[in-house]
Model the fold of this input.
Amino acid sequence: MNGGAVWRASRGAVKRRRVQTIVIGLVVFCSTATVLLALAVISAARAPFDTAFEAEHGAHVTAGFDPARASAEQLAATAHRPGVEAAAGPFDQTVVTIPTDWIGHAPGPLTLTGRPDPAAAPVDRVTVLAGRWATAPGEVVVATPGGAAERFLGSSIITNTGLKLTVVGFATDMSQSSGGWVTPEQMAALHPTARQMLYRFTDADTEQQLTASLGAATEGLPQDAVASAQSYLVLKQAFSAGADAYLPLMTVFGVLGLIVAALIVGNVVSGAVVSGYRHIGVLKSIGFTPRQVVTVYLTMVSVPAVVGTVLGTAAGWVAAYPILETAFTGISTGTAVIEPAGWLPVATLLGVPLLVALAALVPASRAHRFSAAQAISAGSAPRTGRGLKVQRWLSGTRLPRAVSLGLGQPFARPARTALTMAAITLGVVTVTVTTGVTGTLAKSFVPPDRNTHIDVLTAKFAEKKIEPRLTPEQTEAMLHATPGAERVSVRGLVRVGLVGQPQLVFANFYGGDDMVDHQRLRVVEGRPATGLGEIEAGPAFLDQHGVKLGDRLTLVLDGRQTTVTIVGKELQGNANAISSNAATRALLTPDPHVVEYDVRLAQGTDAAAYQKAITDADPSLTPSIVAPSTEGSVVAIQSFSTTFTVLLSVVAALGVFNTLLLTIRERRRDLGMLKAIGMTPRQVVAMTITSVAWQGVLSGIIGIPLGILTHRLIIEHVRIIAFTEGMIDVWGAPLLAALALAGVAIAVLGALVPARSAARLPIAEVLHNE
Amino acid sequence: MSNDHDGTTRPDDAQVVVELSGVHKEFGDAKALDGVDLRIRAGEAVAVMGPSGCGKSTLLNMVAGLDRPTSGTVRVQGQDLGQLNESGLALFRRRHVGMIFQFFNLIDDLPALDNVALAAQLTGTSAKQARRRALELLDELGVAHRKDVYPATLSGGERQRVAVARALMNRPALLLADEPTGALDSRSGEQVMDLLIDLNQIGQTLLIVTHDPNLATRCASRLVEVADGRVARERMLETQS
Done:
């Protein structure tokens, strides 16, 4: 007996079990793709930042000092304090205002730092992406989070004070220490308003350690000398913020996918081996050694498993790119490269077949131990002693006999039933989680009223090349005066600087009738920022800027600055956006910077007529009727949830399908007999579906509470949205009742085809073949 | 009295239970039945014999409604089986036909009593009533003491008696037996033969497919010989009971 015989026997087994081979391949395909996708997001969220940060000797803390309170000499001395591993600085800083569009940026403030070439700096080795470092006054290197725009090299930036700076380079740093860099000599001429120190500390693993290390380094400096301190942990958090919305979901779905895959693969493979015992006996009787028999069976399941793994890896790899792109949109990635890690396909290509082989090994080793006679009889002898009491009891109940037979069937193969039920349970968990997440999101984004709204964009915001006929004040009055308007809210948008932080933030200033009712605002903690000097922001902003309710920030615009207090936490929002009111805006600029009006129409108003009236009054305005919509991240979460739910439900249903296929194959004779004595096709279908439907019911009872717990776990870890308890609690009795059907639905879905095939079994053939 | 083509005679007045007219059955290119005509009247015991592959099992399947002819008609109890769909055929089998097989085909997961009761329970009879009737049958067939035993631990003869009891559960007009003694030792075979004779004597119509001339001559009143898918010869037998 040689390898050729083993291969021929394996090939024959694969061909003979086409459906089973396809099921194994499909299950492995879906599972591999799910696992690879989940791992891609999990690994991309953290590793690239660490790699790029260490390569640049990134600053653990970027500290801003008040030059009036700490001299350059005092700051230089802090580099030698205990706990400071390395330091760079002090570098003078200032915020200039660029009054016009520049290199694709909107007008606004720009933080500049005077710094010599950092290529060999002990901390924060800024990477020049294009051009060169500034070497002479009048030159500037612009920080760019994404790719360098080489065509802009040599272009000029002119500040509102008339200073002209020539762009000689584009650079990026993971520490995000500045918006641009000039030479120290140039900075001296710009009248710096802050001094920057970049520190690396020996103890820098936690925020507490960083605070303590900075405290030790700046000990002895005058009080309030430290104007700002940006931790690299906050940046790291910001780096993966977009992905953070997806991470908890992806992690849970990834783990669920792995478990379901292992269960189903184990069930499918062990079923293939168990149903092949007779075949095993025949092989042994003609001279196959036990080892060769095991090889035949491992080969038999490995062929579809390997094909499924390769295709699943390819599909997962292709899908990972757009998913990562979505997850990291708008994130300053610096020099970090966001792509699926190279080890992922290796891991799935090796790991999944290994999992399959392990799943097959247990039953295959049983086949190894069996003598030829035992194996043959195990495949054909009547079964005894399994679940008989239950079946006996069921036969005496008042249930229709087809139903009671179906109920008792799974007790004949308890291990197979347990594995199938586990798969359905995980399917129910997935459906419950998705339903919960969708319900929470739906509750979170309920519009404040049921009225129709008209969203009116200004010419500048809509990028229309029509001169406005009306001033902002006239527009607001016109919107009010047009019949049907109930309330008019005005939104101004301008980018402002934050003292001590290099990045600009989007400031939304709401005015008009009622900023609180604006559809996009929903304060879930604290109160709305309606008072002078008050702002509110979403959880992502608070997280990534390391601030909390009650903290104060200084906003800078056009050379004016004002200190504001954070009084409210919005449900969600851009990580770089704050909201405030028109009165607070007036402290910074008289220009309302209006970009949008929101008009709430009275019930019964003809929205189209209102829309037309606006355009007639001022063609530069772009009105549109607003349908309640959700944010992009919400849509993405829902899409991911739905995708994974479909994938895992299909895998679970395939598990049921396979279990029934095996059961029907084993019980062909019984089915033939039942049909011969008068069981109708409908009764056969009812019996077959009943045999898994009750497992679906039980899976629902187990899976729903698990799903509810998992939902809570996920929701509490989505950092970019601050859900309240009311939003998390979405479980009403009707919903729970509907979810209870999920397990049955998965079971029935997987059972339909096998049930129909059972109903169509050719009786004469089955009975005479025995 | 009427004359059959072999010249034998039999009573004309009894009801026709089975009537096959020009029945053909083809499996691909192979002809299993090639124009079979056959009538069985109520109370008759007919044995079908012939070499392997001659079509006798196919003929049985046609009568049982387990398979459909390629052409021709099969009527049982006046019902044209070709007019019935799968559900209709199942209901027909349930009401009019009982079947016993060479390898018994009992359900391993059910004890003898429940195997027998099953046939009635499928019609909607309550478990209690079905079990009562099943017990009566097992008692009549001499295996009531084995009612709680699972098929795996019954002897071959006992299994076939249980199978007969199941076949009789719904009081069928026609009892079909496919090599009923083929898997039994001679003693058990004798017992089953006696049982079939007894059943026929109390009016049960029988159609037995067998290789065994002893079974045919002992149990049947008429012998139908099949060869190459056709009825080659029919003759009346003298029962030996």
The domain at 2-236 of chain B is CATH 3.40.50.300 (Rossmann fold).
